[in-house]
């Protein structure tokens, strides 16, 4: 079919353009360097460092292998289309390749300094009491399901549960190639409109939750942050995330406050205080880095006359479950009537639209 041949030709050209701009040889050189480092037996004296290097090796291998697989699959279709007529039996192959090329194209857009890092995602309940806390738990589930679909690993860092239901705030790590780059634009206020399940009249209720997305910094000095030991105030307390026979009898949970800014981070899910201390400190570094980026963006926009002060009411996405069903992103105008699907983790169209808008 002529239409199928046109799709194959378009795929072939599009992917060649993507590959030519992605510095594949540079990535292969980086992989060789890391593999040489990984062969040093002393590397495993620092298990955390070794784990990070092995993850980077795995991510690079996966990326390079996927490029080569896509190139091979497209080559087969090109040869097939030039030798004979294309029938409907290969339509699914073409559709599958289109999805893979689109995903890789999105990855190629992630050129930020920390886009290839793991992500730290936090969700905080806004005004609305139990309603807002329930909305926070719904968002938490949505992001966990999205990560499952992406084959990304997640690990809970800190959680504060609501008194009656839901979650006051939750912070968790997303471990996967370019997870920060893909997720960073989820930062902002998310609004839910629905019939309340918490009162007999089932009145329509509006709830808000704030999402923060940070890159995971590990043992990284950030001179532009200007953080010193004198700026830090540490607190140690018993973790509230374990119960029963595993209830904490020692103060393993950690809270650190950056005195100049008042920013506070907490970690309490690891068994040992030193592990939680390291996580809390790295979280603080990430928040201070984000704060510096926001200051710079504000200065640039003020010079250009574009600056609008951020506020709690600045929404990025609206989720409506009553009186109709719709999820709409207020930046990209991407929308869908399949609200249940989105809340079940079908976020890819929104992630894609935001990535394309920013490039």
Total domain modules:
3
Helical residue percent? 40-55%
Spatial strand arrangement across the major sheet: 2-3-1-5-4-9-10-11
- What is the chain-wise order of helices and strands? HHHHEHEEHEEEEEHEEEHH
* Morphology: globular
Please tell me how large the radius of gyration is.
Answer: 23 Å
What proportion of the residues form beta strands (DSSP E)? 15-25%
Q: Using DSSP, what is the number of strands?
A: 11
CATH top level label of the largest domain = Alpha Beta
Q: Just name the CATH architecture of the largest domain.
A: 2-Layer Sandwich
How far is the N terminus from the C terminus?
34 Å
* Structure classification: alpha+beta
Largest sheet: 8 strands, mixed
Count of helices?
A: 9
How would you characterize the overall build of this protein?
The chain is α+β, with helices and mostly antiparallel strands. The protein starts with a helix and ends with a helix. About 4% of the residues have low confidence. Strands 2-3-1-5-4-9-10-11 form an 8-stranded mixed beta sheet. It contains 9 helices and 11 strands. The protein has 3 domains: 107 residues, Release factor (Methane Monooxygenase Hydroxylase, Chain G, domain 1, Up-down Bundle); 144 residues, Alpha-Beta Plaits, CATH 3.30.70; 76 residues, Double Stranded RNA Binding Domain. A hairpin with a 5-residue loop joins strand 9 and strand 10. The protein is 45% helix and 21% strand. Helix 3 packs across helix 4.
Nutshell version of this structure?
The protein is α+β, with helices and mostly antiparallel strands and 359 residues long. It has nine helices and eleven strands.
């Amino acid at each position: 079919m002529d239409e199928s041949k046109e799709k194959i030709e378009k795929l072939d050209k599009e992917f060649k353009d993507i590959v030519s701009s992605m510095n594949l040889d540079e990535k292969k050189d980086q992989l060789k360097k890391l593999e040489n480092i990984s062969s040093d037996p002393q590397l495993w004296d620092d298990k955390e460092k070794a784990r990070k290097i092995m993850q980077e090796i795995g991510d690079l291998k996966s990326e390079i292998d996927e490029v080569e697989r896509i190139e091979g699959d497209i080559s087969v279709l090109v040869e097939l289309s030039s030798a004979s007529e294309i029938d409907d039996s290969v339509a699914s192959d073409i559709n599958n390749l289109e999805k893979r090329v689109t995903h890789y194209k999105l990855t190629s857009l992630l050129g930020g300094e920390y886009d290839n890092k793991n992500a730290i995602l936090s969700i905080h309940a806004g005004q609305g009491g139990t309603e807002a806390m329930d909305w926070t738990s719904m968002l938490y589930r949505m992001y966990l399901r999205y990560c499952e679909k992406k084959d990304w690993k997640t690990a809970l860092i800190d959680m504060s549960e609501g008194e009656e239901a839901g979650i006051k705030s939750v912070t968790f790590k997303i471990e996967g190639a370019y997870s920060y780059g893909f997720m960073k634009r989820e930062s902002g206020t998310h609004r839910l409109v629905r019939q309340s399940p918490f009162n007999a009249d089932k009145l329509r209720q509006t709830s808000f939750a704030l999402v923060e997305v940070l890159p995971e910094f590990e043992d990284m000095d950030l001179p532009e942050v200007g953080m010193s030991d004198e700026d830090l105030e540490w607190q140690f307390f018993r973790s509230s995330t374990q119960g029963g026979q595993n209830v904490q009898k020692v103060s393993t949970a950690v809270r650190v406050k950056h005195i100049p800014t008042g920013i506070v981070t907490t970690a309490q899910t690891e068994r040992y205080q030193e592990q939680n201390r390291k996580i809390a400190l790295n979280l603080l570094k990430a928040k201070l880095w984000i704060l510096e980026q926001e200051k710079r963006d504000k200065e640039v926009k003020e010079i250009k006359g574009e600056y609008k002060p951020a506020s709690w009411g600045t929404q990025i996405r609206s989720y409506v479950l009553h009186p109709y069903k719709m999820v709409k992103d207020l930046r990209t105008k991407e929308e869908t009537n399949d609200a249940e699907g989105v809340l079940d983790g079908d976020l890819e169209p929104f992630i894609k639209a935001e990535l394309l808008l920013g490039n």
